[in-house]
């Protein structure tokens, strides 16, 4: 009898997992379509890419002729990453956050929250689908933007060998940063009015990556979303970095672990907030 119950429980559990997975995948597809079909989405990233290339490429010919073509491809890649990547991550994160900030609020305005309560779509599935969909949506143009930026260096005469280290930097720094940005923006927008979130996020982002006016900030800690220690340790460039700053393997690994961990914590808090709001709405 015990074996029979166990036998029937396994297919039921498998069906439940399959249903949950299907719900999450469906939400991911919806988010991708909603974002990628917006003309302003691509125009925003295109504008950010042009600004980035113009600001960082002013002295490109001097860099190429005096340094980048005279060193190994690895050293050239490290120079590009160490001097440009934090700015790229900061600018891309700024654009990505503004494009994602209204996603949950828009669902609430369209009444999708009521539909969610009336169906089997659980809050955790909803949050996971929203998160994964928007992460994929913003990661694709971010990667394309950086590849376009690298192509400028290749056209200028820098060796193709810079591509592999730069792609590694994308995986090590940019992808975790996207996870944190999307998680934070979705959570922040669920707590405050949309207009306040649209104004507050840029200010908080500037504080998080620049530490303006010498204020205490996470910009130079293991929580740095631009990978301060990860970039400093794995892509250190002598003569450019501050020699007084010690980038260690421990700090670099802690930086890589802390950023996605913080994103996960924000997602759990987001699910909790949405569940509380749903119960309050149901009782009203």
Automatic annotation (TrEMBL):
Keywords: Membrane, Transmembrane, Transmembrane helix. The chain crosses the membrane at residues 41-64, 76-101, 136-156, 162-191, 203-236, 256-278. The keyword Lipid biosynthesis does not apply. The keyword RNA-binding does not apply. This is ABC-2 type transport system permease protein. It comes from Thermosporothrix hazakensis.
């Amino acid at each position: 009898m015990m074996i029979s119950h166990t036998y029937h429980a396994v297919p039921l559990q498998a069906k439940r997992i399959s249903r949950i997975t299907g719900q999450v995948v469906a939400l991911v597809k919806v988010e991708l379509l909603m974002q990628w079909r917006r003309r302003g989405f691509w125009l925003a990233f295109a504008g950010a890419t042009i600004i980035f290339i113009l600001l960082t490429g002013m002295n490109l010919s001097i860099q190429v002729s005096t340094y980048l073509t005279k060193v190994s491809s690895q050293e050239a890649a490290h120079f590009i990453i160490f001097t440009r990547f934090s700015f790229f991550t900061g600018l891309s994160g700024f654009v990505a956050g503004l494009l994602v900030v209204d996603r949950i609020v828009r669902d609430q305005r369209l009444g999708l929250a009521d539909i969610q309560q009336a169906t089997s779509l659980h809050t955790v599935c909803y949050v996971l689908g929203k998160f994964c969909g928007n992460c994929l949506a913003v990661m694709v143009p971010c990667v394309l933007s950086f590849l376009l930026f690298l192509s400028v260096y290749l056209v200028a005469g820098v060796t193709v060998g810079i591509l592999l280290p730069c792609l590694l930097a994308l995986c090590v720094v940019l992808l975790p940063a996207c996870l944190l940005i999307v998680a934070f923006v979705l959570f922040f927008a669920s707590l405050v009015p949309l207009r306040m979130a649209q104004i507050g996020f840029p200010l908080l982002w500037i504080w998080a990556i620049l530490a303006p006016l010498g204020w205490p900030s996470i910009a130079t800690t293991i929580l740095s979303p631009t990978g301060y220690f990860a970039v400093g340790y794995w892509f250190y460039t002598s003569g450019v970095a501050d020699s007084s700053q010690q980038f260690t393997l421990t700090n670099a690994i802690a930086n890589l672990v802390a950023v996605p961990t913080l994103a996960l914590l924000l997602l759990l808090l987001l699910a909790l907030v949405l569940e509380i709001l749903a119960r309050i709405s149901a009782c009203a």
